[in-house]
């Protein structure tokens, strides 16, 4: 599983990257909104952790542009703001979940697992190897 972490505070970005790598995720970093768009659209990560306040383009705009571009990867927004309006703006922009800083890594991991689980369930359940097919649901 590959996660794109978009965070302009270098120290926090490194801490998140390290923590996620310990959980066996592959991690790419982007430090502003434009880089986030470029990396997300070229790499199509399994999940995007997206800070709301970013240089060049803020997270809400990045989120909207990714959805407009047809990217369906789950987006978990991170922000220092805890205002209801910001949560609504993030979700309306196409984010799947929202966490307010400071957050605990344990909760972050749990939310990431939940989003990735949902992703797995949306996929075609039929397993195929060569000309063999197995549908675990039937
Ligand atoms: Ca920020």
What are its keywords?
single chain; 138 residues; alpha/beta; two-stranded antiparallel sheet; binds calcium ion
Describe the structure in your own words.
The structure is a single chain. The chain is α/β, with parallel strands linked by helices. It contains five helices and seven strands, in the order βαβαβαβαβαββ. The chain has helices at 10-22, 33-43, 59-68, 84-92, 105-122, and strands spanning 2-6, 26-30, 47-51, 75-79, 97-100, 127-129, 132-134. A five-stranded parallel beta sheet has the order 2-1-3-4-5, sandwiched between helices. Strands 6-7 form a two-stranded antiparallel sheet. The longest helix is centred in the last third of the chain and has 18 residues, at 105-122. The radius of gyration is 16 Å and the shape is globular. The two termini are 27 Å apart. The mean pLDDT is 91. Bound molecules: calcium ion (CA). The site of calcium ion (CA) has 5 residues, from loops.
Shape verdict: globular
Average pLDDT taken over every residue: 91
- Helical fraction equals 40-55%
* Secondary structural class: alpha/beta
Low-confidence stretches: none
Strand order of the largest sheet: 2-1-3-4-5
What is the number of beta strands? 7
- What molecules are bound to this protein? calcium ion
Strand share of the residues?
15-25%
By DSSP (H or I, 4+ residues per run), the number of helices equals 5
């Amino acid at each position: 599983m590959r996660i794109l972490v978009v965070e302009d505070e270098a120290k926090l970005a490194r801490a998140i990257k390290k923590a996620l790598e310990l959980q066996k995720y592959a991690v790419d970093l982007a430090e502003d909104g434009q880089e986030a768009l470029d990396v997300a659209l070229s790499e199509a990560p399994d999940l995007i952790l997206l800070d709301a306040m970013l240089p060049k383009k803020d997270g809400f705009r990045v989120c909207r542009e990714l959805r407009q571009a047809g990217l369906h990867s789950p987006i978990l927004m991170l922000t220092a703001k805890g205002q209801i309006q910001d949560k609504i703006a993030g979700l309306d922009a196409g984010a799947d979940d929202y966490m307010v800083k400071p957050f605990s890594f344990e909760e972050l991991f749990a939310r990431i697992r939940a989003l990735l689980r949902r992703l797995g369930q949306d996929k075609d359940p039929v397993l195929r190897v060569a000309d063999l097919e197995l549908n675990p649901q039937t």
